[in-house]
Amino acid sequence: PVDCSFSRGVCDWKQDADDDFDWNPADRDRGDGYYMAVPAFVGHKKDMGRLKLLLTDLKPKTSYCLIFTYRLAGERVGKLRVFLTNKKHAPVWEQDKGKDERWRTGKIEIFQGAETTNSITFESERGKGNTGEIGVDNVILISGLCPED
Q: For a FRET experiment, which of 43, 86, 111, 148 has its CA 20 to 30 Å from that of 17?
């Protein structure tokens, strides 16, 4: 698997220059490294922050699985979406507030056709609330289908 987590991952992460705010590193509770987060009070309602994972060397006609942990903490904190490549069409994954504020695992299957996916974008949309944060951590890309839970 390719470890794209933020503390010691080998992947190329880029902040989108055309969005409204950046994702920022935040310290993990246990103190081992950090995750990327957007505090709830940043920007105005509906503002977006995009963090892009640039992919190279994905083989065409192959399946991959993107696994990551995420957290939406706080009242009306907003939405977290994942988009593949630079096409701004529908997200392949979307989440707004969960039942609680625990870290959860997200999985996305990426099927490479003849045209390969060259980036994955994590997009945070600001909600109405102004406490809490949206966070992403432990991003891993593995070849093959996503494992069952």
A: 111
